[in-house]
Structure formats: C-alpha cells, structure tokens
Amino acid sequence: MKRRVLLCAAALCGCSGTGDKQGGASFLSGLLPASTPAPPPAIDRPMIERLKPGPYTKAATAIGVEKDLARQRGEGLGFVSARPLEETMAGIIAKLAKGSGVTDIPGRPVLLANPQYAAYSTADGNLYVSMGWLPYLENEDELAAALAHELAHVLLMHHGADLVMNTQKRLQALHEAAVNLKTQRQAEKQAAGKTGAAQPAAPSRSDQRDLKNVKLATDLGDKLLMPAFNRNQEREADLLGIDLLVSAGYSPLGMTTLLEKLREYEKKNRQSEEEFTQQLTETAAQDTWRALKLLGRKLTDSISVAHPDTGERIEAAAAYIDKFHADAAGRAPASESWQRLKQQPAAQEVLHNYQLAFEARRQLDAPDVRPALVTARSAASGATATHAYPNWVVAKAATRLGQHNEAAAALERAVSADEPVAEVYSELIAVNEQRNRNDIALKWAEQASARFGDSVRWMPDRIRLLRKLGRVSDANTLTARCTVEAPDWRRLCQEANTPPTATAGAKPAR
Ligand SMILES: [Zn+2]
Predict the structure, then answer these.
(1) Between helices 83-100 and 335-343, what is the axis angle to 10°?
(2) Ligand 1 center to residue 53 CA distance, Å?
(3) Helices (H) and strands (E) in the chain, counts
C-alpha cells in the first residue's frame, strides 16, 4: 500500500515510449491517469489560510507512522541512518509545522538510499528525501523547500484513497514486470548452466521474444510512472510550501531555486534517458541477459512519478512570491549552516560513501565488475561500514567475481544493519532456494515480511516456498489472505500457489 509522490525525478518518466505495445495495451488500460488537466483556479489569498489551526486530523488512508515506515523500508533500496542530517531535517520540519498553525502532525523525515533526485510523502506524515538530492543543494532554504512541499501535501490531505489505489496499482504492475524479467533471466541462467557456460550468451532462439519483452518493459517503466498527484495539487503544495518557508524564517526563493535545480536535473536526465534507451538497444542486440539486468536496475530505482511541467511551476511560484511575499524575498538564504552541516565529519563521510555506493552500482553494469568491487569496498567503510546498501553492492560485485566468502560476509553485514534493504532479503531467499534449502528460504521470507510491515510483496515468495515444502494448507490460507487483503496481487499469489514442478526456479536471484 503506497502513497508516494515525487517532488522530483521526472527523469524516468514522461518520455513517450515508441515500443511495441502488443499485449501491453489491456494491461496498461485503467492504470494510466486521465490527461487533459483543467486550468488551475486563481489564487486570491495565501494558501496557508486554507489550513484549519489546531490538532492535525488523521487522513483516512493513514496506516500508522511505524507501519508506514516499515512498508516504505520494504520498497526501493532502504533508508540511510545519518544522525546529523536527520536531526537537521527534523528541526526544519518542526519550524515549518509551527508556522502552519496545525499541531500534532505525525511522521518524521527519512533519507532514502536512492541516487535519484526524489522526494515523497505519505498520509502518515513521513517525509522521504533521497540521498541523491543532497549534494546539489546549496543552502538550508532549498532543503527546507523540498520538505515544505512534501509537508504541504500532508497538510492539504492530498493522500486520498484514489491516490493510494492508483499508486498501488502502478507499483504492483511494475513489480510484476520486474518479476517477469527476473524469471526470464533465471531461465536463461539455467539454460546456460546446463551447457556449462559461466555466463550465458544471448540465446539466439529467444532473441526476438526477449527484445520484445525489453521494449515492452521499457514502455511500462515509462508509462506506469505517471504523476500521482494532479497538476493543481502540485501547484498547491509548491505555494503552501512557500508560505511555510516564509513563516519559518526562510527565503521564499528557496522554492524557486530548488525548482530550477529540478529543471536542470530533468534536462540532464532527459539526455541520459535517451542515452539509456540507446545503450539498452545496443546491449540487447548483443547480450539480452545484460540488457534485462540494466532494465531491472532501472525498475528498482524507479520509485518515481513525474510532476507537472517544471517551467510552469517556477512561473507560478515566482508570481505567488511577488503577490504575497515580496518583502521576504530579500532574505539571505542560510548557506553557512548548510555548508557547516555537510562538512561535519559524520555527515560528510555518509554523503561521500553513498555517492561511492551509487557509483559502484552503476559500475556493476560494465562487463568488468572489478572496479565496482573496489568502489563498493570504499563505500562500505568508516561511518557506513555496517550500512545495508553499500554492503549489498559489495555482495553483488563479489558474487559476480566468484568471491563468495566476501559476498557472504557483506550480505551478513547488510542483513543485520539497522536500516535493512529489501533486496538483501530477496537475495538470501533466492540463494537458498537455488540450493533447495527451501526451509531456510522460507525463514528469510517470513523475516522479511515481519521486518517490512507485513508488506504483500513477500506473499508470493512465502506461498511458493510453502508449496515446495509440501505445506499445501498453509499455502492455501496465505493465498486466500492475499486475495482478500491485496486483490491487485491475487494473480501473483495464485501463480505461486501451484504445484512446485510448474514453478521450479521461478524465483531467481537478481
Ligand atoms: Zn509533490
């Protein structure tokens, strides 16, 4: 159950796929939001006046702060614990909240181990900001602007039932696409295993079909990540965000400079998106396996949805500042406090090491993964030596190089980290299942389910493993629960609940 929205990261969306949509059209229909937005209504008084002062009213879609955190942990690539940065964000949010007149707002700030330029919020008031964003920020006002925009979505009760449903459907479809890709890769791996090849070459027989799948999945990746909030809600969040910035003592221009940075990022990534498509096409022509892996990585990173045209947002924000906050526009942004924070040893090392970890992850796409392992080892050192994400990248690189002891040690560190990464559990499940250690695999799937807020994501794994262990009635019970609690996942759960021979090897490692 997800309610996520991106302030940024239009990078992965918006580009219209020209691929073959055969077989995809019916799958997509109903998932895409209606287009043709109405022109936004004129704003004649400050947005902040729309808020009702007093205790915050919980949104109907809220599931509880802790449960929400647990579920979000299970998506994407995990959280980053970095105390000085988190404390600063919490302090900023407290100031913004005070100015809103609304009290008892739940939630907390969270840093995501994600290289994208992204932020989102949930109905429970948790505000998520990706690590990828921080190096680009020049002052505290810009960080405050990102948080103010997300807090504004929470205060304006934008996380309605429709949004939850749409986003859940999109993510479920994405997950399904990723599972299909993984299944296919596994099949190729197994085929290669039989012929004794260390790494499968592109099987020529299935090239045509694979290329079609790659195209379809690329298309899905682009199309499914459509805006969850409508254009007017985005504008409202920008404008209320500006009011909150001003009442907290920040410069309202933090919002416009932040949006300008977003626009630059989008421009840069639109290019790299084209490069990516080209790279994918070229790779697919030579090596389907690697192409699928490239795509798989993209899907895992893609927790994002696009916002309306950024140029339009910048204009609306500037006009609003002129109209209501002209006097506050002269405030100097808090640059020194931000630079001081970034230079604090604890913050600096975490920021630096995550940049290294993201770099190592990119290097994993190269044919020679030795540089990736070197970079990943540096990423998993010092302040982040026990962090899940850098160790996960070490494990992936070491596995590719056949250094299984190093991989196992890194996975062990990753799984016992304070902030877990769901992919680590997927890896542990797959590794054990491949060795037919299905009881251990099931134990990891159950632990993952418990650790990530009973997320439906683990249900198909658990059902399949119960089946393999001959626990048919337990598998049936869980499948029934899946059908009731997560109708969107019904198909995946039912597919998992078939006799083992039919699904053998259906859950591959990444
Ligand atoms: Zn937004």
Answers:
(1) 150
(2) 22
(3) 21, 6
Expressed in angstroms and rounded, the spacing between residue 261 Cα and the centre of ligand 1 is: 15
Quote the CA–CA distance of 240 and 320 in Å, as a whole number. 10
What's the mean pLDDT when you consider all of the chain? Answer: 79
pLDDT at 431 (0 to 100): 83
Mean pLDDT over 55-61 rounds to 88
| pLDDT-above-70 percentage for the chain | 69
Is the distance from CB of 432 to CB of 440 less than 8 angstroms? yes
d(CA 291, CA 269) in angstroms, rounded, equals 19
3-class DSSP string for 294-329:
HHHHHHHHCCCCCCCCHHHHHHHHHHHHHHHCCHHH
For ligand 1, the distance from its centroid to the CA atom of residue 313, given in whole angstroms, is 11
Q: φ and ψ at 130, to 5 degrees?
A: -80, 150
> What DSSP character marks residue 132?
G
Residue 291, both tokens:
């192409």
pTM passes above 0.85: no
Q: Give the Å distance between the CA of 389 and the centre of ligand 1.
A: 26
H or E element in which residue 255 lies: helix 253-286
How sure is the predictor about 308, in pLDDT bands with cuts at 50, 70 and 90?
low
Average pLDDT (455-478) is 93
pLDDT tens string 376-420: 999 999 999 999 999 999 999 999 999 989 998 999 999 999 888
Helices 459-468 + 422-434 axis angle, to 10: 20
Measured CA to CA, the distance from residue 420 to residue 422 in angstroms comes to 6
At 74, the pLDDT band (50, 70, 90 cuts) reads confident
Q: Measured between alpha carbons, how far is 379 from 359 in angstroms, rounded to an integer? A: 9
State in Å: Cα 244 to ligand 1 middle. Answer: 15
Question: How close is the Cα of 150 to the center of ligand 1, in Å?
Answer: 6
Strands 109-112 and 79-80 turn out to be antiparallel
Report the separation in Å between the CA atom of 5 and the middle of ligand 1, taken as the mean of its atom positions: 6
- Name which of 105-109, 235-239, 365-369 the model is least confident about: 365-369
For 413-468, give the DSSP string: HHHTSSS--HHHHHHHHHHHHHTT-HHHHHHHHHHHHHHTTT-GGGHHHHHHHHHH
Rounded distance from Cα 7 to ligand 1 centre (Å): 4
Q: Tell how far the Cα of 68 is from the centroid of ligand 1, in angstroms.
A: 18
Q: Are 95 and 113 in contact (CB under 8 A)?
A: no
